[in-house]
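Input set for joint prediction.
Command: fold jointly, output tokens.
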Amino acid sequence: MAADNLLSQKQQAELRGIAVAVEYEHEGTVIFSEGEDARFVYLVADGVIRIGRTSDGGRRQILAFMLPGDLLGLPDAGSYVNSADVVCPSVLYRIPWAKLRDLMTREPSLQHNFLVKVAHDFREAQRRIVMLGQQNTYQRLASFLLDFIQHPAFFDKADRCLTLPLSRFDMADYLGTAPETVARGFLRLERDALVRRVTSRIVEIIDVDGLRRLQMRKRRAET
Amino acid sequence: MAADNLLSQKQQAELRGIAVAVEYEHEGTVIFSEGEDARFVYLVADGVIRIGRTSDGGRRQILAFMLPGDLLGLPDAGSYVNSADVVCPSVLYRIPWAKLRDLMTREPSLQHNFLVKVAHDFREAQRRIVMLGQQNTYQRLASFLLDFIQHPAFFDKADRCLTLPLSRFDMADYLGTAPETVARGFLRLERDALVRRVTSRIVEIIDVDGLRRLQMRKRRAET
DNA sequence: CGAAAGGTTGAAAAGCGTCAAGTTGCGTGG
DNA sequence: CCACGCAACTTGACGCTTTTCAACCTTTCG
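tokens >
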């Protein structure tokens, strides 16, 4: 999850030539689904997008939340491998793959930019592997909160309040756990005086360093 | 984990001009470590490479095993973010970043090839997120075995024997669990008549479909 | 105002990590 | 060639963690 967008003026102009802004009003609207023909790439302009995969068992794993500046819709052999739907009203630039490909062959620096974005998402995915492989659910929740407070759109530094755009179900599917476990995680964070729940979606972050210390502990702490 | 290498004759020739083959004899030899200055990219010619990250707590998470044809050493802001060491005697082509960058600007199709490789690794990382987020350790072990039997270098179809190049510790760090749990996983797979342990590193795969069915079950099966 | 969805909490049982005690396999040196 | 020692592996036991089922509370929205 990150939002950096470094394109030259010229590149931006060229991209805008082939991109169409699309608005998604309603929460849950599907942008594309896994298996579909991949005709477009999307660039997030505003909002939050959920990228996920539904496994054969019917359970959903959320791979990432995409924010303004992020790119989504990479195909594999011509089809999407993930699904994407909007978490809240959002605006995306929709770019036809065919045209983007043309543009990239003419403009290698654009392709390089594209590569940088994919490499970034790749590293982000690796961070998540570490999180899921090494941390217990309580630590993952802490990591999740620490990631989100990096984004001014959700975190108000003045009153230290974090406004989550997500339900407990979304968080659970992102953290690879059950919604109940997430709720219990918040309960414990509150008991340990690291956060305070204002509403189920608004959390006051009381002790950032405490959250950071949590992340680094062993999965099974001796205390 | 995959090994597909689609470069044109010309590209191969140009790459060979700047690449140096490096041999690593001994198991465990470090190719690069996280935090180091990223001066080279490596292409696996022969052997198996372990890509991992050591978290602040001192625990190691193996992100991927790289096989011939795979690329490693992507930098982030000029430094490696992962560590790489050899699992068994291996040969790598070492390519200086600076020269590769030059070559890519002159040869956009090479850059495109590079992009395809990174995109592939990215999708592979996403697969691992799903595995770690949704499956229990027993299922992950099954997934791991199913991945490995795709590679003829390790799996002898004639006698259905899989020769693992990895220790139980490596598998544990890859699967995000403890070596004991991996051993117990094998015990159970054997009890369920899905595999037979010949030695600790050689496994006869008895029931591939059974392993596949395992993957798809719920984390907590009712049977 | 009532229904539905989301959220919280409790309780029971399965899953898993950790410690500890073997066992096996292998290379080294006697 | 055997004995020894070491490292990897296996297995058991125990207790913390997490899932699951179920009940209840809260909020939202028609």
